[in-house]
Amino acid sequence: MGDNDVNRRLRLLSLDGGGIRGLSSLIVLSDFMKRVNRSRLGEDQIEPWQFFDLIGGTSTGGLLAMMLGRLRMSVEECLSCWADLSKKIFQPKRSKYNPLKAVSFLKADGRFDAEILEAGIKDIIRKKLSQPYILANEKIPTNLEEVLLWGQAEDSCKVFVCAVKGEDTRAVFLRSYDNQNQSDHYSADFKIWEACRATSAATTFFDPFERTSQGVRQMFVDGAFAYNNSVSRVFQEAIDLWGDRETLLISIGTGNKPDSPMVGSVKTLFKKIVDIVLATEMEDREFQENHSTLVEAGLFYRFNVPGMAQVGIEKYEKLGEISAVTKSYLSEPDTNRRMKLCVEKSS
C-alpha cells in the first residue's frame, strides 16, 4: 500500500453482491476516490489497492474486490471491464426454461453460460497481470491464469471473497492472505480466477463452480446465500489481523428492494432470493446496532442507492439507468455530506 503509517486508522471496504448493479458500487467508489485524490497531483494520485488495507465482498462484490485489490485495477479500468464483461456473460444460453424439470436448490440450471463467465474472468486476469509491476514481488508462472490467490507482499491490500460450499451450504472465505486466527482449508491452493468464479457462481444464473484439490472434488456456489453483505466479516477479519486498531469501514450496497420473481425451473427459489435482499439490509442494521461506538464516532459509512434492486441482476441493458440513478443519489445533499465526512475521516 502507498501509506504504511501504522498509527493511522485502518481503511476497510465491503462490497455487496448484486450482479449488473455492481456498476453502482463502482460509481460510488469512483466518487469517493476522486474526493480522496483532490489534494493529490499527478503521480501522487492513488487507487483503491493503495488506499484500503482490506477489501472484502461477495458475488459481484467479491469479483470487484479481486479486481480492485488483488489485481490492482484502477476504478476506471474496472468500470470499463465491468460493462464489457456484463454484456458478454448475461446472454441466455437457451430461450426459455423447462418448468417440468425438477432440480435441487444447489444444482438449479444456470440461465447463462458459465464458460463465458470463466473466459471473461481469465481474460481480465491475463491482461492485467501481463503488466510487469503488478506481480513485481511475486513468483510469476508462465501461464498467468495459474497465479495463486496467495502470494502477495505482506503490506499489500488484503482481499477476501465469500462463497458457499455446495456439499453442506456453509460459507467459506477465500483469502489472499493468511488469517492465523481462522481455520482455512481452501485459500492456499486457489488460483485467482477460481476464487473469482467461486464467489460469482450465482445460483440459477450460473452453474456451480467445481474443482479438484488433492484428489477431492469440491463444489462452490455464490456466497450471497450466506454473506451478500460482507460488512460484519470484513470487520472481523480486520480484528483478526490488526487487533483493536482504530478503523474506518465503508460499506457499499447494490440496492434495497427485492428483484422480480424468477420463472420456470427456479421459481421455487424466489423466496430465498428475496430473503437475500432483505437479509442484506438487516445485516447493515444489525451491524450498526452492534457497533454503535463505531457509528457514533463517524467511522462507519453505508452507501446504498434506494430502489436499485428493482433492476434485475442480469439486465445489462439497464447500465445507463443504473449509472444515472447512482449519480443522482451521489448528488443528493445528505449523500454528499456523508461522503465528505467519510473522506475527512480517512485522512
TrEMBL record:
Native species: Arthrobotrys musiformis
GO molecular function (one): calcium-independent phospholipase A2 activity
Cellular component annotations (GO), alphabetically ordered: membrane
BP-aspect Gene Ontology terms: arachidonate metabolic process; glycerolipid metabolic process; lipid catabolic process
PROSITE patterns: PNPLA
Extent of motif GXSXG: 57-61
Occurrences of domain PNPLA (ranges): 13-235
The entry's keywords: Hydrolase, Lipid degradation, Lipid metabolism
Short sequence motif DGA/G: positions: 222-224
Annotated InterPro entries: Acyl_Trfase/lysoPLipase, PNPLA_dom
Motif GXGXXG, residue range(s) on this chain: 17-22
Protein name stated in the entry: PNPLA domain-containing protein
Active site, per annotation: 59, 222
Classification via Gene3D superfamilies: Cytosolic phospholipase A2 catalytic domain
A family per Pfam: Patatin
